[in-house]
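step 3/5: co-fold with zinc ion
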Amino acid sequence: MIFIFGTKPVLLNEITPKSIKCNFCESQGTVTLISRSSHTHLYYIPMFPLGIKISAYCHDCTYEANQNEFPQNYYSHIDLLKNDSKTPFWQFTGVAIIIIAIILGIGRSRYVENRDAAYIATPAIGDVYHYKTGYSQYSTMKVVSINYDSIFYIHNDMEADRYNMLSELNVEENYGDDIYYILNSELDSMQNANTLIDIIRAED
Ligand SMILES: [Zn+2]
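step 4/5: write tokens
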């Protein structure tokens, strides 16, 4: 996978004060002070801003001076320029996307947690439990009958090393004939320990 990553400066503002001289050719009133805000981008999507930089461009000799070459009398103009140069919000696009994704992720996982807790409290025949069998090992079990404080289930003989492969494992021939049971309270503990990852109900 190739990441297209880079930085890009964007022009914010410029002023051409009559009172300042070019460092190089000494022409007066020919220097434009320019403010630019750079941002990093990933696949050309602005990720986050890197700050505002000022440069000075002389229209007479085309010399472009950097911040460390500015004479003292540039600075009062630079202060004014900086006051009128704000980092545009769109340069925070990547930060915003990341924050929104985190908020949605937290919202989604809370939703799943609450829903699964309700499914454990009121189980239905056919519920498929996705759970961890070990480090990076996952499998499923399926509810076949319900008791007041426990469920009876059949057990998937197959395991996957990736959680998102579990729906492929959930086929009839992978389940054995032996019936096991587990207490609802044990399922609650599994959920709290993140061993029980998700519960799939047919009507969902
Ligand atoms: Zn010049």
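step 5/5: annotate
The chain has four helices and nine strands.
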